[in-house]
Every structure is written in C-alpha cells, then in structure tokens.
Amino acid sequence: MRSLKVSDVMWNHIEPIRCGTPLTRVVKTLLANHVTGLPVVDEHRKVLGFVSEQDCIHSLLVSSYHCEGEPTVDDVMFRSPLTVGPEMAVIDLAQNLGAGKPKVYPVVDHDRLIGVVTRTAILAELAKSGCGIELPKFVEAD
C-alpha cells in the first residue's frame, strides 16, 4: 500500500469543467459522472477553481428564487482548491483526509490537470489492501 501512488487510483477520463460553463450543464456533468465535484480549468488545463454539488444547489436555489439569469461556474466555483500530485502516496493522502476536506482532489502535474482522485477510490484501495473486506466486483470509485 505504501508504494501505491495517486496516479494508480486517479480517474483521467472525466472531462473537467471550463470557465464560463452554464451551471445547468455543470450539474448534468456531475450527475452523469457520479462525482460530487470537479475542477474548473482554462484552455491549457490549468486548475482555476473547483465546483461542487453544494455550490450548484445553493446558486440554483438563489437564482430560481430571484428569477435571475442562469449562473455560470465562474459565479460559484471555489477559487483556491487543494490539489495533489500524481506521485503522492495514497496512504499519505488517506491520512490527510478528514472531516470537511474535499471528496475529490484535482491531480496536477506541471501546473496542468491530469485527473481526479476521489475519497471513494482511496477507500476502495484501502479495503482491497488489507482489511479482508471483499468488495463487490461492480464497485467503481467516484
């Protein structure tokens, strides 16, 4: 487990959110990918922020109530997200996971987004590596 790296458990097939994306499209992307949040990037995949389900819920409630125009991801994203590197040990990241910490971490290499790692992926790896827990074969990290 000590040698398992973030790059071994990250997802690199999810397309990040681009600045200017309407919030309704962000919500569809989150739901389609079964994730609680995604990084927001520029055209060079530099991480500029992070948007979560909670950010979307609050903003859509407010904009619906006030009959305002559709918000964009720029209106709600958190602009200083925590990121991790691909070489970070999974065990080190797992030890840093605590209450209130992100559920999804952007994985950045040379200032460029290369994937995301989720709490679920880390939990699945911890369970596989030693607790004797048998996971269903269909479980996929989100």
Automatic annotation (TrEMBL):
A UniProt-annotated Pfam family: CBS
Swiss-Prot/TrEMBL keywords: CBS domain
Residues of the CBS domain: 10-68, 77-135
PROSITE patterns the record matches: CBS
Designated name of the protein: CBS domain-containing protein
Organism: Marinobacter profundi
